[in-house]
Design brief:
The chain is of the alpha+beta class and about 180 residues long. The protein folds into two domains: about 5-40, no CATH class; about 40-175, Alpha-Beta Complex (Nucleoside Triphosphate Pyrophosphohydrolase), CATH 3.90.79. Helices cover about 20% and strands about 40% of the residues. It is built from three helices and twelve strands; from the N terminus they run βββββββαβββββαα. It has helices at about 80-95, 150-155, 160-175; strands at about 5-15, 20-25, 30-40, 40-45, 55-60, 65-70, 75, 95-100, 100-105, 120-125, 125-130, 140-145. The longest helix is centred in the C-terminal third of the chain and has 16 residues, at about 160-175.
Length: about 180
């Protein structure tokens, strides 16, 4: 059954988040007060080096107090195309300029609570152009063999949803093509 949204009331809004209370109708005419997080889209990229290695950020996430690998990803600015945002984010976060990007996947990482959508691209090459723009984005950058992706998931060194989706999809399609 498709839920019917009767109204949404803002609870908190800033430049990053729009948290709302939605009045939704479910089966039998019942109504639920459901929280909704609205946010701008995100874009990122899986960057390969031509030798089956992927460029990953090793970073700490304070909310969950966990360390893990992630792909470079960030917000899509107003009027910006997702592909352009992905290239910008890679360069800002890593100091590497990705080669030509092509779509890898689209994901809605938390569709039960949020309208967040992530556009992920893949590049087969990159050029080092300098240092990352911010020193707080990552503890370090690593070129990690694609074949290690299942191990990273198993050992919880890769837990970020969008990064995990992108890298497992790459691993599955990359190894199937061999």
């Amino acid at each position: 059954m498709r839920w019917t949204v009767h109204s949404e009331k803002p609870l908190y809004t800033d430049a990053w988040l729009d948290i709302r209370l939605a009045d939704v109708e479910v089966t039998g005419g019942r109504h639920l007060a459901h929280r909704v997080i609205r946010s701008a889209p995100g874009a990122g990229a899986v960057v390969l080096d031509g030798r089956d290695n992927v460029l990953l950020l090793w970073r700490h996430r304070f909310i969950t107090d966990t360390w893990g690998y992630e792909i470079p990803i960030g917000g899509v600015d107003e009027g910006e195309e997702p592909e352009d945002a992905a290239a910008r984010e890679v360069e800002e976060e890593t100091g590497w300029r990705p080669g030509p990007l092509r779509p890898l996947l689209y994901t809605q990482p938390s569709s039960g609570i949020s309208d967040s959508e992530h556009h992920v691209f893949v590049a087969d090459s990159a050029e080092r152009v300098g240092e990352p723009q911010e020193d707080w984005e990552a503890e370090r950058l690593d070129w990690v063999p694609v074949d290690r992706v299942p191990e990273l998931v198993r050992t919880r060194a890769l837990v970020s949803g969008t990064s995990m989706n992108a890298l497992l999809y790459l691993y599955a399609t990359h190894t199937a093509g061999r």
